Write the C-alpha coordinates for this entry.
Amino acid sequence: MKAAMYAGQGRIDVREVAQPEPGPGEVLIRMRASAICGSELHDYRAPHGSGAIAGHEGVGDVVTAPAGSGLALGQMVAVQVFSGCSQCRYCLSGDWEHCASVRFHGGTHAEYMAVPASCCRPVPADIPPEDAVLLGGDVIGTPYHAIRKLGVSAADTAAVFGCGPIGLGAIAVLRFLGARILAVEFAPYRRALALRLGAAEAIDPAAGDPVARVRELTGGRGVEVALDCSNVADTAWQALEAAAIGGRMAFVGEKPEAKVGPSPQFISKELTAVGSWYFTGPDYFDILALYRRGMSLAGLVTHSFPLAQADRAFALFASKETGKVLLVQGE
Protein backbone atom coordinates (compact mmCIF):
# COMPACT_ATOMS: atom_id res chain seq x y z
CA MET A 1 0.00 0.00 0.00
CA LYS A 2 0.99 3.65 -0.33
CA ALA A 3 1.77 5.68 2.80
CA ALA A 4 3.07 9.20 3.45
CA MET A 5 6.18 9.14 5.66
CA TYR A 6 8.02 11.93 7.48
CA ALA A 7 11.34 12.22 5.65
CA GLY A 8 12.78 15.16 7.64
CA GLN A 9 13.87 18.67 6.61
CA GLY A 10 10.44 19.63 5.31
CA ARG A 11 9.91 16.56 3.13
CA ILE A 12 7.28 13.85 2.87
CA ASP A 13 7.95 10.60 1.01
CA VAL A 14 5.07 8.53 -0.35
CA ARG A 15 6.33 4.95 -0.22
CA GLU A 16 5.09 1.44 -0.85
CA VAL A 17 4.88 -0.34 2.51
CA ALA A 18 3.27 -3.53 3.73
CA GLN A 19 -0.44 -3.37 4.37
CA PRO A 20 -1.03 -3.68 8.14
CA GLU A 21 -2.28 -6.96 9.55
CA PRO A 22 -4.90 -6.29 12.25
CA GLY A 23 -4.14 -7.94 15.56
CA PRO A 24 -6.61 -9.25 18.15
CA GLY A 25 -9.41 -6.76 18.72
CA GLU A 26 -8.26 -4.55 15.83
CA VAL A 27 -10.11 -3.20 12.80
CA LEU A 28 -8.62 -2.83 9.33
CA ILE A 29 -9.73 0.43 7.71
CA ARG A 30 -9.43 1.50 4.09
CA MET A 31 -8.85 5.24 4.40
CA ARG A 32 -11.08 7.67 2.53
CA ALA A 33 -9.79 11.07 3.74
CA SER A 34 -7.23 12.36 6.19
CA ALA A 35 -6.40 15.89 7.33
CA ILE A 36 -3.04 17.54 7.95
CA CYS A 37 -2.71 18.89 11.50
CA GLY A 38 -0.46 21.75 12.58
CA SER A 39 1.15 19.52 15.20
CA GLU A 40 2.55 17.39 12.36
CA LEU A 41 4.84 20.23 11.30
CA HIS A 42 7.25 19.35 14.13
CA ASP A 43 7.97 15.94 12.58
CA TYR A 44 7.79 17.40 9.07
CA ARG A 45 10.53 19.96 9.84
CA ALA A 46 12.68 17.66 11.99
CA PRO A 47 16.32 17.19 10.86
CA HIS A 48 15.81 13.49 10.21
CA GLY A 49 12.94 11.33 9.08
CA SER A 50 11.12 9.35 11.74
CA GLY A 51 10.16 6.38 9.59
CA ALA A 52 6.59 6.78 10.86
CA ILE A 53 3.48 7.00 8.71
CA ALA A 54 2.14 10.54 9.04
CA GLY A 55 -1.31 11.66 10.08
CA HIS A 56 -3.71 11.33 12.99
CA GLU A 57 -7.01 12.67 11.65
CA GLY A 58 -8.84 10.38 9.26
CA VAL A 59 -11.94 8.50 8.19
CA GLY A 60 -12.34 5.31 6.23
CA ASP A 61 -14.36 2.16 5.61
CA VAL A 62 -14.20 -0.97 7.74
CA VAL A 63 -12.58 -3.85 5.83
CA THR A 64 -12.37 -6.39 8.67
CA ALA A 65 -13.63 -6.14 12.24
CA PRO A 66 -13.49 -8.45 15.26
CA ALA A 67 -16.62 -10.31 16.30
CA GLY A 68 -18.66 -8.40 18.84
CA SER A 69 -17.26 -5.00 17.88
CA GLY A 70 -20.61 -3.77 16.57
CA LEU A 71 -18.93 -2.59 13.38
CA ALA A 72 -20.21 -3.61 9.95
CA LEU A 73 -18.06 -4.27 6.90
CA GLY A 74 -18.08 -1.21 4.66
CA GLN A 75 -19.19 1.10 7.46
CA MET A 76 -17.40 4.46 7.58
CA VAL A 77 -15.67 5.32 10.83
CA ALA A 78 -13.63 8.22 12.16
CA VAL A 79 -10.35 7.24 13.77
CA GLN A 80 -9.96 8.25 17.42
CA VAL A 81 -6.21 7.95 17.80
CA PHE A 82 -5.98 7.11 21.51
CA SER A 83 -6.75 3.83 23.23
CA GLY A 84 -6.47 2.94 26.88
CA CYS A 85 -7.11 0.17 29.37
CA SER A 86 -10.92 0.38 28.88
CA GLN A 87 -11.47 0.01 32.67
CA CYS A 88 -10.34 3.24 34.36
CA ARG A 89 -12.52 6.29 35.07
CA TYR A 90 -11.09 8.11 32.04
CA CYS A 91 -11.70 5.32 29.54
CA LEU A 92 -15.20 4.67 30.86
CA SER A 93 -16.06 8.35 30.41
CA GLY A 94 -14.75 8.40 26.82
CA ASP A 95 -11.60 10.32 27.80
CA TRP A 96 -9.04 7.71 26.66
CA GLU A 97 -6.16 10.14 26.20
CA HIS A 98 -5.83 10.58 29.98
CA CYS A 99 -5.62 6.85 30.72
CA ALA A 100 -2.37 5.86 32.47
CA SER A 101 -1.97 3.13 29.82
CA VAL A 102 -2.75 5.36 26.84
CA ARG A 103 -1.50 4.33 23.40
CA PHE A 104 -1.34 6.57 20.33
CA HIS A 105 -2.39 5.20 16.93
CA GLY A 106 -1.16 7.45 14.13
CA GLY A 107 -0.81 6.73 10.44
CA THR A 108 -3.96 8.07 8.77
CA HIS A 109 -2.06 9.33 5.69
CA ALA A 110 -2.07 5.88 4.14
CA GLU A 111 -4.29 3.62 2.08
CA TYR A 112 -4.99 1.36 5.07
CA MET A 113 -4.53 1.41 8.83
CA ALA A 114 -5.28 -0.99 11.68
CA VAL A 115 -6.53 0.28 15.05
CA PRO A 116 -8.33 -1.15 18.09
CA ALA A 117 -12.09 -1.34 17.64
CA SER A 118 -12.44 1.15 20.51
CA CYS A 119 -10.78 3.78 18.28
CA CYS A 120 -13.55 3.63 15.67
CA ARG A 121 -16.27 6.27 15.93
CA PRO A 122 -19.26 5.48 13.72
CA VAL A 123 -20.02 8.02 10.99
CA PRO A 124 -23.64 8.30 9.78
CA ALA A 125 -23.92 7.02 6.21
CA ASP A 126 -25.17 10.32 4.76
CA ILE A 127 -22.14 12.37 5.90
CA PRO A 128 -19.48 12.72 3.19
CA PRO A 129 -15.92 11.79 4.17
CA GLU A 130 -14.72 15.38 3.60
CA ASP A 131 -17.05 16.54 6.38
CA ALA A 132 -16.63 13.44 8.53
CA VAL A 133 -12.86 13.95 8.82
CA LEU A 134 -13.51 17.42 10.29
CA LEU A 135 -16.29 16.29 12.62
CA GLY A 136 -14.22 13.38 13.93
CA GLY A 137 -10.87 15.16 14.11
CA ASP A 138 -8.97 17.82 15.99
CA VAL A 139 -10.11 20.83 13.96
CA ILE A 140 -13.63 20.82 15.42
CA GLY A 141 -13.25 18.46 18.38
CA THR A 142 -10.48 20.22 20.30
CA PRO A 143 -11.96 23.75 20.14
CA TYR A 144 -15.45 22.39 20.78
CA HIS A 145 -14.18 20.69 23.96
CA ALA A 146 -12.92 24.09 25.18
CA ILE A 147 -16.00 26.03 24.08
CA ARG A 148 -18.30 23.55 25.81
CA LYS A 149 -16.35 23.83 29.07
CA LEU A 150 -16.51 27.63 28.87
CA GLY A 151 -20.27 27.69 28.34
CA VAL A 152 -20.18 30.07 25.37
CA SER A 153 -23.47 31.64 24.26
CA ALA A 154 -24.76 34.21 21.76
CA ALA A 155 -24.40 36.88 24.47
CA ASP A 156 -20.60 36.55 24.39
CA THR A 157 -17.89 38.26 22.40
CA ALA A 158 -15.07 35.80 21.83
CA ALA A 159 -11.51 36.59 20.74
CA VAL A 160 -9.65 33.82 18.91
CA PHE A 161 -5.86 34.21 19.04
CA GLY A 162 -4.29 32.21 16.22
CA CYS A 163 -6.28 31.22 13.14
CA GLY A 164 -4.57 28.06 12.06
CA PRO A 165 -6.89 25.07 11.62
CA ILE A 166 -7.78 24.86 15.34
CA GLY A 167 -8.59 28.57 15.52
CA LEU A 168 -10.61 28.37 12.32
CA GLY A 169 -12.50 25.38 13.74
CA ALA A 170 -13.22 27.43 16.85
CA ILE A 171 -14.65 30.19 14.64
CA ALA A 172 -16.96 27.68 12.93
CA VAL A 173 -18.33 26.50 16.28
CA LEU A 174 -18.60 30.02 17.72
CA ARG A 175 -20.41 31.23 14.61
CA PHE A 176 -23.02 28.49 14.98
CA LEU A 177 -23.51 29.39 18.67
CA GLY A 178 -24.09 33.03 17.70
CA ALA A 179 -21.13 34.61 19.51
CA ARG A 180 -19.50 37.77 18.17
CA ILE A 181 -16.00 36.77 17.02
CA LEU A 182 -12.79 38.79 16.95
CA ALA A 183 -9.92 36.98 15.21
CA VAL A 184 -6.23 37.74 15.82
CA GLU A 185 -3.80 36.33 13.26
CA PHE A 186 -0.49 37.31 11.58
CA ALA A 187 -1.00 35.47 8.27
CA PRO A 188 -3.03 37.58 5.78
CA TYR A 189 -4.55 34.52 4.09
CA ARG A 190 -5.89 33.20 7.38
CA ARG A 191 -7.19 36.62 8.50
CA ALA A 192 -9.21 36.79 5.29
CA LEU A 193 -10.42 33.22 5.82
CA ALA A 194 -11.46 34.01 9.40
CA LEU A 195 -13.66 36.83 8.08
CA ARG A 196 -15.25 34.52 5.50
CA LEU A 197 -15.94 31.97 8.23
CA GLY A 198 -17.79 34.49 10.38
CA ALA A 199 -15.38 36.69 12.36
CA ALA A 200 -16.64 40.25 12.80
CA GLU A 201 -13.09 41.61 12.77
CA ALA A 202 -9.70 40.15 11.85
CA ILE A 203 -6.85 41.87 13.69
CA ASP A 204 -3.26 41.93 12.44
CA PRO A 205 -0.86 41.86 15.45
CA ALA A 206 1.85 43.38 13.23
CA ALA A 207 -0.28 46.51 12.75
CA GLY A 208 -0.46 47.38 16.45
CA ASP A 209 -1.25 46.05 19.90
CA PRO A 210 -3.97 43.42 19.38
CA VAL A 211 -5.12 43.68 23.01
CA ALA A 212 -5.67 47.42 22.62
CA ARG A 213 -7.71 46.76 19.47
CA VAL A 214 -9.80 44.10 21.22
CA ARG A 215 -10.52 46.51 24.06
CA GLU A 216 -11.39 49.25 21.58
CA LEU A 217 -13.91 46.94 19.93
CA THR A 218 -15.45 46.01 23.29
CA GLY A 219 -15.82 49.49 24.77
CA GLY A 220 -12.71 49.04 26.91
CA ARG A 221 -14.06 46.05 28.82
CA GLY A 222 -12.44 43.13 27.02
CA VAL A 223 -14.04 39.92 25.84
CA GLU A 224 -16.14 37.47 27.78
CA VAL A 225 -14.27 34.58 26.14
CA ALA A 226 -10.65 34.39 24.92
CA LEU A 227 -9.32 31.32 23.10
CA ASP A 228 -5.56 30.89 22.67
CA CYS A 229 -5.32 28.59 19.64
CA SER A 230 -1.67 29.26 18.79
CA ASN A 231 1.53 27.52 19.86
CA VAL A 232 3.32 30.90 19.99
CA ALA A 233 4.18 32.04 23.53
CA ASP A 234 2.99 35.65 23.09
CA THR A 235 -0.62 34.79 22.34
CA ALA A 236 -1.19 33.36 25.83
CA TRP A 237 -0.35 36.73 27.40
CA GLN A 238 -2.50 38.55 24.85
CA ALA A 239 -5.50 36.29 25.37
CA LEU A 240 -5.28 36.66 29.14
CA GLU A 241 -4.94 40.44 28.83
CA ALA A 242 -7.90 40.64 26.45
CA ALA A 243 -10.25 38.74 28.77
CA ALA A 244 -12.68 40.89 30.72
CA ILE A 245 -13.12 40.92 34.50
CA GLY A 246 -14.96 37.71 35.30
CA GLY A 247 -14.17 36.38 31.83
CA ARG A 248 -13.28 32.89 30.64
CA MET A 249 -10.19 31.78 28.77
CA ALA A 250 -8.97 28.54 27.20
CA PHE A 251 -5.58 27.24 26.11
CA VAL A 252 -6.53 25.14 23.07
CA GLY A 253 -4.12 22.60 21.61
CA GLU A 254 -0.41 22.60 22.35
CA LYS A 255 1.43 25.44 24.17
CA PRO A 256 4.98 24.42 25.18
CA GLU A 257 5.66 27.60 27.18
CA ALA A 258 4.16 31.00 27.92
CA LYS A 259 4.38 33.95 30.28
CA VAL A 260 1.39 34.65 32.52
CA GLY A 261 0.66 37.14 35.30
CA PRO A 262 -1.22 35.30 38.06
CA SER A 263 -2.25 38.40 40.02
CA PRO A 264 -3.32 40.82 37.27
CA GLN A 265 -4.56 38.23 34.79
CA PHE A 266 -6.19 35.60 37.01
CA ILE A 267 -6.61 36.65 40.62
CA SER A 268 -7.62 40.30 40.27
CA LYS A 269 -9.91 39.58 37.33
CA GLU A 270 -11.29 36.37 38.87
CA LEU A 271 -10.71 34.73 35.52
CA THR A 272 -11.78 31.17 34.72
CA ALA A 273 -9.19 29.33 32.59
CA VAL A 274 -9.29 25.82 31.12
CA GLY A 275 -7.12 23.65 28.93
CA SER A 276 -8.26 21.62 25.92
CA TRP A 277 -5.82 19.07 24.52
CA TYR A 278 -8.17 16.73 22.64
CA PHE A 279 -11.85 15.80 22.89
CA THR A 280 -13.96 12.98 24.28
CA GLY A 281 -16.34 10.37 22.92
CA PRO A 282 -19.39 12.29 24.21
CA ASP A 283 -18.02 15.45 22.56
CA TYR A 284 -18.07 13.64 19.20
CA PHE A 285 -21.80 12.95 19.46
CA ASP A 286 -22.44 16.56 20.49
CA ILE A 287 -20.54 17.71 17.39
CA LEU A 288 -22.65 15.44 15.17
CA ALA A 289 -25.77 16.99 16.74
CA LEU A 290 -24.53 20.53 15.97
CA TYR A 291 -23.84 19.47 12.37
CA ARG A 292 -27.36 18.07 12.06
CA ARG A 293 -28.74 21.37 13.36
CA GLY A 294 -26.89 23.42 10.77
CA MET A 295 -23.32 24.02 11.91
CA SER A 296 -21.58 24.75 8.62
CA LEU A 297 -18.13 23.42 7.76
CA ALA A 298 -18.04 25.31 4.45
CA GLY A 299 -14.76 27.11 3.90
CA LEU A 300 -12.71 25.24 6.50
CA VAL A 301 -11.12 22.99 3.88
CA THR A 302 -9.33 25.12 1.30
CA HIS A 303 -7.21 22.51 -0.49
CA SER A 304 -7.45 18.77 -1.23
CA PHE A 305 -4.77 16.53 -2.72
CA PRO A 306 -4.50 12.83 -3.58
CA LEU A 307 -2.27 10.83 -1.26
CA ALA A 308 0.42 10.66 -3.96
CA GLN A 309 0.83 14.44 -3.68
CA ALA A 310 1.27 14.51 0.11
CA ASP A 311 4.63 16.31 -0.15
CA ARG A 312 3.02 19.14 -2.10
CA ALA A 313 0.12 19.25 0.35
CA PHE A 314 2.42 19.57 3.37
CA ALA A 315 4.54 22.26 1.71
CA LEU A 316 1.48 24.38 0.99
CA PHE A 317 0.06 23.83 4.47
CA ALA A 318 3.37 24.87 6.06
CA SER A 319 3.25 28.15 4.12
CA LYS A 320 0.13 29.26 6.08
CA GLU A 321 -1.60 29.97 2.78
CA THR A 322 -4.34 27.45 3.55
CA GLY A 323 -7.10 26.53 5.91
CA LYS A 324 -7.49 22.81 6.51
CA VAL A 325 -5.78 20.59 3.92
CA LEU A 326 -7.06 17.10 3.10
CA LEU A 327 -5.53 14.03 1.51
CA VAL A 328 -8.37 12.22 -0.25
CA GLN A 329 -8.60 8.77 -1.79
CA GLY A 330 -11.00 7.27 -4.31
CA GLU A 331 -13.95 5.01 -3.72
Remarks:
- The domain at 2-137+280-328 is CATH 3.90.180.10 (Quinone Oxidoreductase; Chain A, domain 1).
